[in-house]
Design brief:
By secondary structure, the protein is an alpha/beta fold. The chain has 8 helices and 11 strands. It folds into 2 domains: 117 residues, 3-Layer(aba) Sandwich (Rossmann fold); 96 residues, Winged helix-like DNA-binding domain superfamily/Winged helix DNA-binding domain (Arc Repressor Mutant, subunit A, Orthogonal Bundle), CATH 1.10.10. The protein is 41% helix and 21% strand. Bound molecules: calcium ion.
């Protein structure tokens, strides 16, 4: 497994590189946003750890650029204490998870494991392609298009969509979705599910306020109907 670490604090780079190596990961580092972006575009990584406050180009811009270029690698953002707005924006721009500094290395590894588990590149989908309305999905390549235009989904949004489609017709509670899609119960709350459902609707539904496919079942949760 290959990890890209984009971080400008020399001490943290040293500690994390060391710990990641000892866990058997192959690690490449970049100390500013521009260098991180070009590495992420030129090589394949299984995971990107991306600091928000970086010289030359901040982590949020790097994240947005990567998703715009259809790089679906899971991204774990590192934010400084109190950067709440950055977390929300980061997730909206296509990051998959975030961790607030200072953090315990064991917490970092829990997040890394969860992200690698739910990466679309490693998941075994029971179906290859799926269509609904004017949306088409290629599960093998993790490509989603609406009216033939590629749509940027985070790895997590993709996994959620995939789960709903594979279990279409069934109603899923928010807790069930957290268990199945997020896969660990450290941080996310049921509100997280609502937020990601809302983003999927924004990106895929013709009228997100009156969703045709990703439906709310009041008092129970969500279901996908095609
Ligand atoms: Ca920094």
């Amino acid at each position: 497994m290959k990890i890209l670490l984009v971080e400008d604090e020399a001490g943290l780079i040293l500690t994390l590189t060391d710990r990641l190596h000892s866990e058997g990961f192959d690690v490449k580092t970049a100390a500013d946003g521009e260098a991180g972006l070009s590495l992420a575009l030129s090589e394949n990584f299984d995971l990107i750890i991306l600091d928000v406050m970086l010289p030359r180009k901040n982590g949020l811009d790097v994240c947005r650029d990567l998703r715009q270029k259809a790089i679906a690698t899971p991204i774990l953002m590192l934010t400084a204490k109190g950067e709440t707005i950055d977390k929300v924006i980061g997730l909206k721009l296509g990051a998959d998870d975030y961790l607030t500094k200072p953090f315990e290395v064991i917490e970092l590894f829990a997040r890394i494991e969860a992200l690698l588990r739910r990466s679309p590149n490693t998941s075994q989908s029971s179906i290859d392609t799926f269509r609904f309305g004017d949306v088409s999905i290629d599960f093998r390549r993790a490509v989603v298009k609406k009216e033939n235009v590629p749509i940027e989904l985070s790895a997590l949004e993709f996994k959620l969509l995939q789960y709903l489609i594979e279990h279409r017709g069934s109603v899923h509670s928010r807790n069930k979705l957290l268990d199945e899609v997020w896969g660990y119960d450290a941080m996310p709350t049921t509100r997280t599910v609502d937020v990601h459902i809302a983003w999927l609707r924004q990106k895929l539904e013709d009228n997100p306020k009156h969703p045709q496919f990703i439906q709310t079942v009041h008092g129970f949760g969500y279901k996908f109907t095609a």
